[in-house]
Design a protein that fits this description.
heterodimer, A: 509 residues, mainly alpha, Alpha-Beta Plaits, two-stranded antiparallel sheet, 4 strands, B: 443 residues, alpha/beta, FAD/NAD(P)-binding domain, Enolase-like, domain 1, 3 domains, five-stranded parallel sheet, 12 helices, globular
């Protein structure tokens, strides 16, 4: 019975997918009927499939057979899925015409299939980004339901997943569409309130700043909120809750990783060498995004000299921020620099030197002898599209669900540095109860070797930890707990974990 | 014959031996060699079940990368020790090589108990302790429809969960009237018993194994239980506890004194001055209060490793475990305990018990009838903080104060219903009732 339902529901879901894909080759007359029925088939096929998978089992951890399944163990199915998602991303980013995109007239194919929905929400025909956003949101909601059912024994997981589903649906999808429907004449700017710079790498781009400045009250609001989010809200929330407030509760990339990517979390590498690569990559991306952002703001300020702030002021602000951060790191460090901190300080140094170089060697159009527009474009291509989309999602079944967040996301990098240095968040290890089984490490999507800390009785404070809480959920001995508490003694160290009392007075020499 | 001189030689690369090696390396530069015939590198035995259930791969059970050992200058030898020559301070290996030592630490662990059942050596009969036990089971699994497990302990219930996860119908023979009721008090034992049944295991209480029946090719065909029933099966898991794995000492006529295990003093030293023994295979000459002479628990193995490392690196240190603690997971129910809560309370041990009306969650506090000091806690389905209970036990805190501050011990994830708070009214109520009846008894 269970097997029959499994096959039938998979077939239903798949038929929805095929119906939707067929719109790229078949010209349908009634678009809304096809759109609704394909989405409904996928949704109900999926929900019944997941319900069947976890019904008749008691609430608890559901990882049986994860490493026997060819989908979740880098087998043939995983490979096929990886190629398929990568292929779709390549089409959306670089070959949109195959999906029906038309730059000079009404779109056709898959893109026009979403026209009814787009008209309903924002009064315009669907763009490829509308289609992408719709499917992305659909995936988070569908797999979010799966995740909630899978982890129904764990309230932290349930609430967290409702949160990512909500933020994706409302903040990233619904509200921006409604806002652009209500303000049809304002120029385009990102209307996803939670899309924080530098994850939204074009926030400070010339055209984006201009569109916000000329976007009326709404534009000004988004500009001010964007700045407040980066400089005030984010540091405060990260101080109290760690970077998880964003990465595993709010963020859309995190949202997809936590829901659709959950089945692949175990594929992230825990090797020490990969940690080294991670440190290198994350800081390189960080330096890159800072320099390009400084460069675009620099040239923007050059062209708009009558703003509240000029190049000189900007130069001093950035210098101040960089030096203060280096100072804070220097004075709060304990027992010398860890490798993490050393990389951060070096990155800040590079940013500072680049800033000085920009000031010395730039003119109106060229930043450091490079056209500033080109610099920005290359970031958009390599990081924005190739990394976060193709590698970040397409490679879920090969490299795990958080490749982008771990190796590429500049926002995660900034939040991580704060989390490491100045946050109340930590994963507490419960005394000496660890049995070194390794479930925590295996199921850490960020590739943190959680066990290496837990088995020494040490708390875990790592810049990359997104606070998903799965390590604590899969621990069979109740050893790990995500906590916010005083900064003092956040990482105590002992000769050995709690439980051993070699009494010094009893020690005979 | 190869004559290698090494300073510390450790037999066994389990948690005890490896902890000793790591801590010796932390405090000194002497040569360290670890010998094992199970795996080349340390892996976590506690994760064997997760390999079989597909939660992780064998590679992931290794707490340290293979490069760790070389980096820390710990020599790793994958071989079998056949004998120890105390005169020449050397051990003999199966390949006839010899390795000399200045200090020898024997941490060779346990082996599954077999109580002489007819058929216990048949193909398809196995314990679940070594990696090789798992490999045998894995190879056999495609042919197993039904499995019988004998022995109501922690390994037995894990084996039941393992087999179930692979679609094997499990018949679980338990001698006691409720699961693990020598350790778990009645209510908790009952809860786990019901949970085993809820998972679809054919749990047979008050039942023992009589004999294992072979088929024509000397494989398991089925078992006869003490109730006379025949159960058709292709696999029999023997999980009636473990005992020290010291046959190689007895067979090689070693001078090291043994009983069930290797006899050690407070310094984990055997009767031979430069030979120590730690972990499951050690038998304490002077047992600690309420602790057994042989403790086959992960945590105590680790602590003995930490302790012997101090002695060998120059700070002679007696083994002095702190307050007892343990944990396990019975299918979906987590179990923890701190301090001492006896299944059958001693005369001066009073229990306060709370359980959730619907869920598999309970907390039991034990305190002393005369002094009212806390003795321990036993909690199911809820996580409590080790540090807090260790401190309360150190302080010998009064039970009323423990109840008053009970929320401080909560270790459940955020947003969970606060069971430590939920339990308080019941604890207070039971406490008052007990006080009243105590008063009556005295008057």
């Amino acid at each position: 019975m269970k097997k029959t339902i499994q096959k039938a529901s998979a077939l239903v879901g798949l038929s929805g997918l095929i119906l939707m894909s067929s719109s790229t080759v078949v010209e349908y007359q009634s678009l809304s009927a096809i759109l609704v029925s394909s989405l409904a088939l996928m949704f109900f096929g999926g929900v019944i499939f997941f319900w069947n998978q976890y019904s008749n089992t008691l609430a608890g951890i559901k990882n049986n057979g994860v490493f026997f399944n060819t989908l979740t163990n880098r087998g043939l199915l995983g490979l096929i899925l990886g190629v398929l998602i990568t292929f779709i991303y390549v089409l959306i980013y670089w070959y949109p015409k195959t999906l029906g995109y038309n730059s000079s007239g009404p779109s056709t194919g898959l893109i026009s299939l979403f026209d009814p929905l787009s008209y309903l929400l924002n009064g315009k025909p669907a763009s490829r980004w509308f289609v992408y956003g719709s499917l992305y949101t659909f995936a988070i909601v569908l797999f979010g339901i799966k995740f909630i059912y899978k982890y129904r024994n764990n309230r932290y997981q349930v609430i967290r997943t409702v949160s990512v589903m909500f933020f994706q649906f409302a903040f990233a999808y619904y509200i921006p569409e409604i806002l652009s429907a209500l303000n049809p004449d304002t120029p385009y700017f990102a209307k996803d309130l939670k899309n924080i710079w530098p994850l939204n790498y074009y926030f400070f781009d010339q055209w984006h700043l201009k569109n916000m400045l000329y976007g009326g009250g709404l534009g000004m609001f988004f500009l001010v909120f964007g700045l407040v989010l980066v400089f005030i809200i984010s540091p405060i929330l990260t101080y109290f809750y760690g970077k998880r407030w964003y990465c595993s509760w709010v963020c859309g990339c995190g949202g997809l990783a936590e829901t659709a990517g959950d089945a692949f979390r175990q594929l992230s590498s825990k090797k020490l060498n990969v940690w080294k690569i991670e440190r290198l990559m994350i800081h390189a991306v960080l330096v890159f995004i800072f320099i390009t952002t400084i460069a675009v703001i620099w040239s923007f300020l050059g062209r708009n000299p009558d703003l509240y702030i000029n190049r000189k002021g900007f130069f001093y602000i950035i210098t101040f921020i960089t030096l203060t951060t280096i100072g804070v790191i220097y004075f709060t460090k304990k027992n010398g620099f860890s490798k993490d901190l050393r990389a951060t300080v070096v990155s800040l140094g590079v940013i500072l030197i680049s800033l000085i170089a920009i000031r010395a060697y730039s003119n109106e159009t060229h930043i450091l002898f490079i056209e500033s527009a080109k610099l920005q474009k290359s970031y958009g291509f390599f990081i924005g599209a190739a990394f976060s989309g193709v590698l970040g999602v397409g490679f879920y079944p090969i490299l795990g669900s958080r490749v982008w967040c771990r190796f590429g996301c500049p926002a995660a990098a900034i939040l991580g540095i704060q989390q490491r240095l100045f946050s109340r968040f930590r994963i507490t290890t419960n005394g000496g109860q660890c049995i070194s089984c390794g479930n925590c490490s295996v199921y850490c999507e960020m590739g943190i070797d959680v066990r290496s800390y837990a088995q020494r009785g040490e708390n875990i404070v790592r810049s990359s930890c997104v606070g998903c809480g799965i390590c604590a959920a899969v621990c069979p001995r109740g050893v790990l707990k995500l906590e916010n508490d005083k900064l003092k003694n956040r990482i105590p160290s002992f000769e050995f974990p709690l439980g051993n009392n070699p009494d010094i007075t009893n020690t005979i020499n | 014959m190869n004559d290698l001189i090494n300073s510390v030689l450790i037999i066994g690369n389990g948690i005890s031996g490896v902890t000793a090696a790591r801590h010796i390396r932390k405090n000194s530069d002497i040569d360290i060699t670890i010998i094992s015939n199970e795996t080349p590198y340390f892996f976590s035995r506690t994760a064997l079940m997760y390999i079989y259930m597909g939660h992780m791969k064998f590679e992931a059970t290794k707490p340290y990368e293979d490069s760790f050992w070389k980096k820390n200058r710990i020599n790793v030898v994958f071989d079998q020790v056949t004998g120890i020559d105390e005169e020449t301070n050397s051990v003999e290996l199966a390949n006839n090589n010899r390795i000399s030592y200045k200090y020898l630490i024997i941490a060779c662990g346990s082996k599954p108990n077999k109580f002489g059942w007819p058929g216990q050596e048949l193909e398809g009969v196995s314990g679940m302790y070594h990696l090789q036990d798992l490999e045998r089971l894995e190879a056999l699994t495609p042919t197993i429809n039904q499995g019988v497990i004998v022995g109501g302990g922690l390994i037995g219930i894990e084996l039941a969960e393992m087999l179930q996860s692979r679609g094997v119908q499990v018949h679980y023979l338990v001698r006691e009237s409720n699961f693990w009721n020598k350790v778990l008090p009645y209510e908790e034992s009952k809860m786990v018993t019901q949970h085993i049944l809820d998972h679809g295991v054919d749990l047979q209480l008050n039942t023992e194994l009589n004999l294992i029946e072979p088929d024509s090719e000397n494989r398991v065909k089925g078992v006869y239980t003490s109730k006379g029933e025949f159960i058709d099966c292709q696999y029999v898991g023997l999980t009636c506890g473990v005992s020290p794995n010291i046959d190689f000492l007895k067979e090689s006529n070693s001078r090291i004194k043994t009983d069930k295990g290797i006899i050690v003093n407070r310094f984990l030293q055997t009767n031979i001055e430069n030979i120590y023994s730690i972990g499951d295979c050690a038998q304490h000459l002077h047992p600690f209060d309420q602790r057994s002479r042989i403790e086959s628990v992960w945590y105590t193995g680790r602590m003995m490793g930490e302790t012997v490392a101090r002695t060998i690196t120059g700070t002679k240190t007696a083994y002095q475990p702190g307050h007892w603690f343990n944990s396990a997971k019975f299918f979906d129910i987590e179990y923890q305990t701190y301090g001492r809560v006896n299944a059958n309370p001693s005369p001066n041990e009073i229990h306060l018990y709370w359980e959730h009306p619907k869920k598999n969650i309970s907390i039991r506090l034990a305190y002393d009838r005369i002094t009212h000091k806390i003795l321990g806690v036993l909690n199911m389905g809820v996580r409590l903080r080790h540090e807090v209970f260790d401190q309360w036990l150190n302080e010998r805190r009064e039970i009323l104060s423990v109840i008053e501050h009970f929320e401080n011990s909560n270790f459940d994830p955020e947003f969970y219903a606060n069971y430590t708070r939920m339990a308080k009214p019941t604890f207070y109520k039971h406490y008052e009732e007990i006080e009243k009846s105590e008063l009556k008894r005295i008057l």
